[in-house]
TrEMBL record, chain A:
This is Cytochrome bc1 complex Rieske iron-sulfur subunit. It is found in: Cell membrane. It comes from Agromyces kandeliae. Iron-sulfur subunit of the cytochrome bc1 complex, an essential component of the respiratory electron transport chain required for ATP synthesis. The bc1 complex catalyzes the oxidation of menaquinol and the reduction of cytochrome c in the respiratory chain. The bc1 complex operates through a Q-cycle mechanism that couples electron transfer to generation of the proton gradient that drives ATP synthesis. Its main location: membrane. InterPro entries: QcrA_N (IPR045603), Rieske_2Fe-2S (IPR017941), Rieske_2Fe-2S_sf (IPR036922), Rieske_Fe-S_prot (IPR014349). SUPFAM superfamilies: ISP domain. Residues 1-21, 35-57 are annotated as: Disordered.
UniProtKB/TrEMBL annotation, chain B:
Keywords: Cell membrane, Electron transport, Heme, Iron, Membrane, Metal-binding, Respiratory chain, Translocase, Transmembrane, Transmembrane helix, Transport. It is a multi-pass membrane protein. This is Cytochrome bc1 complex cytochrome b subunit. It holds the Pfam family Cytochrom_B_N_2. The chain crosses the membrane at residues 46-70, 117-135, 147-167, 213-237, 269-290, 337-361, 382-407, 413-433. It comes from Agromyces kandeliae. One of its GO terms (biological process) is respiratory electron transport chain.
Length: 358, 534
């Protein structure tokens, strides 16, 4: 990228007194000292104890093969454990034992080989180091010229540069041919549905009863005592055969009853609650986790994912955390039998923000 | 086969015959002769890359075993397996088959836990390996491209981890996907549709596990394998770097030969990594999905954590202050999601191109095969320390709730401190690291000039006490003096007498990098120091 090959000529190091020592390859601003120390060369080789003491060497060899034998033992142990620790009962303890003993056997089998081989290499094998010469990574001049010639010949023989019409049309074709494949991926999602439409509606309708999650038992207003909170799903959700989780991911609601004095409602939403009972979407407006933690004495809802906090007493506005919007409120009322029902669907999309939302 | 190639042809042993058979059909002897006795430099920090490679192999082995039992389907079933507390609970086939792997297939839990532990170790090892490369400057020419490949693998590894984590379709993995869904939806213009296509309809849908499965066991592993092959091929082409030591130069590679010592050590090391993972998997539970239950959009428990390597992204989401979302031109702009995404993207991009930036600043076009001690490149080390601190703060932020409850602090206090720390921390780390490096360099100079402090005090004839300094031998000295420093760049007009913006920038960066520098001791200086003593 930024490695222009001429930069070194235009820009010189502040101290260029060593210019004469600069070799063919640019050193940039490296400071090459003229009286730097020279590499003293390899130090004399120091023998290990196993090189000098035949007894120690014998012992090292013994260690190595003992480790390899231990490994065999470990493998056999693991196989035996497979049979000796069945998990046919419904007991979690059996699973633990099976896991433990197969695992320990396998670990011994593997570690035996590992330690054995490494010890062999370190203590028994010859430990002299060797030095390989390095060569410049780039090909030499001859190779490069050869490569250039190959390309030139190929170009001449094919007319790639000369026959511009052929070349350009080929490039065009190559650019366009993957497009159908891209289009095919439209099939990843259903053809006849629009996400914006889907995200704007939930299962809640006028008259849908609020029921307990997950039992589906309807809730009477009288049963909601001050300070309590209920996890709520719309009536009929548990019976759905298709799309249950998708609906639940939008329709989950938290129901709370506050002392009506403590409830500060927006004027146009005064009719959305019933005697201090309010229902709010449980799906966080940040990125969609369930806002599942209710702190009764502060009336704060806390999202466990990124700690956004919503103030139920103040129409669930955000008081802390990365969420930006209040939780949407579900307008509720009480039906003839005293059950809590929705007045309508949510009046805005629930859950995380999306581009088309406004 | 390879050992036999050195045998004399007269003794027609079986190995010799077999080797001959193979060589006449593959020409493999050229390869063995070329590579078998290559020197492979050795150092403990070079093992980090091997840990990564070997844990990947363990992942491949255990993952393949898991594919025989795991079923990537989101069809709803009633759980009928052995784990009593979940009997009769509705869940996806994916979750049920993962429970079966854990409770009904002997050794299944062991392999599953080994797969997960290996995944954690894999990402950790790549990360540490990358830090080793960074702090020793091993990314310099000719290895810049290998840095890029390695870093791409780091990102892919996180992708592998995330897709794998999502497969069992338990409560936590579903929640992770919910967060991904929410983040994707926050992307301007394409977000809503991207999420819709990814999930095959509305979240969570019934497609995502199957799709992630294809990514997890086919696409990503194949790409990773190809990159690993390329990465290792480059290591062979470049030959391994080495630390400065007597006898080692830019023109040689010094170490034990690949056959037999290096092969035995590395091969043994593979079994050690494998064995340690087996040991961990047999002793420690990981991802006990049976405690979490199947995915349901409604419940979630506090204090749940993603796998460690996702933490930094989660932390970035948490540190955004309230209200960063606006409706503009009738569209929603979710800066609470965009800022972390773009911020992390820039961070990642900077790391990715760092080698090119440094090469541009130094203008150095030579090959570098001797790696730096971190102290000898103070600015680079300081930049690295700042980057690590930035990452660490984000990572800590992912545990903000746990920090708050554990240390009895307020959530607000923890978040606000971390927000401040995200900006102040890297700056402090930068200056501290730089000062420490320079102090260490000065100490090195002291040692070269005046020797080690021996701890022995003697009384001079004049009555004063001095500590005897032990001079260094030339081998020890070489390790301390064999580095180069760079000078700041001076701006000079180009051929047309102009000073371009690029030059100014480069000169500025160069000053930033190399203004404070400690040059190694030269022969003349050592001589002068000796005269002083006598
Ligand atoms: C770098 C690569 C990989 C990483 C980081 C990784 C990570 C993971 C993780 C974290 C899980 C969740 C395990 C759990 O339930 O606790 C998982 C599941 C799984 N992985 Fe991988 N994996 C990788 C490669 C592979 C490969 C190559 C295969 C197959 C050849 C594979 C097959 C599976 C299967 C079948 C599951 C689901 C079974 C289960 O959840 O227990 N993985 N992976
Ligand atoms: S999803 Fe609720 S704070 Fe992020």
């Amino acid at each position: 990228m930024a490695q222009d090959d001429h930069s070194g000529t235009e820009l010189a190091a502040a101290d260029s007194s060593h210019a004469e020592t600069v070799p063919a390859v640019k050193t940039g601003t490296a400071l090459i000292q003229s009286d730097a120390f020279e590499n003293p060369g390899f130090p004399p080789h120091r023998p290990r104890v196993t090189d000098e003491d035949p007894k120690k060497e014998k012992r090292a060899q013994r260690t190595v093969y003992t480790l390899f034998y231990l490994s065999i033992l470990g493998s056999i142990w693991a196989i035996a454990a497979y049979m000796l620790f069945p998990m046919e009962g419904n007991d979690v303890g059996d699973v633990r034992l099976n896991n433990l003993f197969i695992g320990l056997g396998a670990a011994l089998a593997l570690l035996g080989i590992g330690f054995g081989a490494v010890h062999w290499a370190k203590a028994v094998m010859t430990d002299v180091e060797i030095a390989d010469e390095r060569h410049k990574v780039g090909g030499n001049v001859v190779a490069r010229e050869g490569a250039v010639k190959v390309f030139q010949d190929a170009d001449r023989e094919s007319g790639f540069t000369r026959r511009a019409a052929i070349r350009n049309s080929l490039i065009g074709a190559l650019l366009v041919f993957p497009l159908p494949a891209v289009v095919l991926f439209r099939g990843l999602a259903p053809q006849d549905e629009n996400p914006v439409e889907l995200l704007s509606h939930t299962m809640w309708k006028a008259g849908t009863r609020l029921t307990l999650d997950p039992s589906g038992v309807p809730i009477k207003a009288a049963d909601v005592t001050i300070g309590s909170a209920f996890h709520v799903i719309p009536e009929g959700l548990s019976e759905l055969h298709h799309g249950k989780l998708e609906e639940k991911a939008k329709a989950a609601v938290l129901l709370m009853r506050l002392n009506p004095d403590e409830l500060n409602e927006l004027p146009d939403r005064a009719s959305w609650s019933y005697d201090g009972i309010v229902a709010y979407s449980k799906i966080c407006t940040h990125v969609g986790c369930p806002v599942a933690l209710y702190e009764q004495h502060t009336h704060h809802l806390l999202c466990p994912c990124h700690q956004s906090q919503f103030d139920v007493a103040n129409h669930c506005e955000v008081i802390f955390g990365p969420a930006a919007r209040p939780l949407p409120q579900l307008p509720i009322m009480v039906d003839d039998e005293g059950y809590l029902v929705a007045q309508s669907d949510f009046t805005e999309p629930v859950g995380p923000s999306f581009w088309e939302r406004h | 086969m390879s050992t036999a190639t050195t045998q004399t042809p007269q003794r027609r042993t079986f190995t010799a015959a077999a080797s001959n058979y193979i060589d006449e059909r593959t020409s493999v002897s050229t390869f063995v002769k070329e590579l078998g006795r290559k020197a492979f430099p050795d150092h403990w920090s070079f093992l980090l890359g091997e840990v990564a490679l070997f844990s990947f192999l363990v992942i491949l082995i255990t993952g393949t075993f898991l594919t025989f039992f795991f079923q990537a389907s989101m069809a709803e079933v009633e759980y009928e397996g052995s784990y009593v507390p979940l009997k009769g609970v509705e869940m996806s086939v994916a979750m049920a088959s993962t429970l079966d792997i854990s409770f009904d297939i002997r050794g299944g839990l062991f392999v599953r836990q080994m797969h997960h532990w290996a995944a954690l170790m894999f990402v950790a090892a790549i990360g540490l390996h990358m830090l080793r490369i960074f702090f020793t400057g091993a990314f310099r020419k000719p290895r810049e491209l290998n840095w890029v490949i390695g870093f791409v693998m780091f990102i892919l590894a996180m992708g592998e981890g995330f897709t794998g984590y999502s497969l069992p379709d338990d409560l936590l993995s579903g929640n992770g996907l919910r967060i991904i869904d929410g983040m994707i939806k926050g992307i301007p213009l394409i977000g809503t549709w991207t999420s819709f296509l990814l999930f095959g309809g509305e979240f969570p849908g019934t497609e995502i596990v199957g799709r992630l499965y294809t990514l997890h066991i086919l696409l990503l592993p194949v790409i990773l394998l190809a990159l690993i092959a390329l990465h290792l091929m480059f290591v062979v082409v470049h030959k391994h770097t080495q630390y400065a030591a007597p006898g080692r130069t830019q023109q040689n590679a010094v170490g034990p030969p690949i056959l037999p010592v290096y092969a035995a050590k590395a091969g043994g090391f593979f079994f050690l990594v494998f064995g340690v993972l087996a040991l961990i998997a047999s002793l420690f539970t990981i991802n006990p999905i049976w405690n979490y239950g199947p995915y349901d959009p409604s419940p979630v428990s506090a204090g749940t954590q993603p796998d460690w390597y996702i933490g930094f992204a989660d932390g970035a989401l948490r540190l955004i202050p309230p209200g960063w979302e606006f409706v503009l031109f009738d569209r929603t702009w979710s800066f609470n999601i965009l800022v972390p995404l773009v911020g992390l993207g820039l961070f990642i991009a900077t790391v990715l191109i760092y080698p090119f930036i440094e090469a541009w600043v130094t203008g150095d076009k030579r090959e570098h095969h001797i790696v730096d001690r971190p102290r000898n490149a103070p600015t680079r080390t300081a930049i690295g320390a700042a980057g690590v601190t930035f990452y660490a703060v984000l990572w800590a932020a992912a545990s903000s709730d746990i920090i708050a409850t554990h240390f009895k602090l307020t959530m607000e206090g923890v978040i606000h401190s971390l927000q401040a720390l995200l900006f102040i921390g890297p700056i402090v780390a930068y200056f501290v690291a730089k000062r420490v490096c320079i102090a260490l360099q000065k100490k090195d100079r002291e040692i070269v000039l005046h020797g080690y402090e021996s701890g022995r005090i003697v009384k001079l004839p004049g009555g004063e006490f001095i500590e005897v300094h032990q001079p260094l031998d030339e081998y020890d000295r070489w390790k301390l003096v064999s580095y180069e420093s760079y000078q700041p760049l001076m701006i000079r007009p180009n051929a047309r007498g102009k000073i371009t913006v690029g030059q100014r920038l480069r000169a500025g960066m160069s000053r930033w990098f190399f203004e404070d520098r400690i040059a190694p001791v030269t022969k003349g200086e050592l001589e002068a120091a000796h005269h002083e003593h006598h």
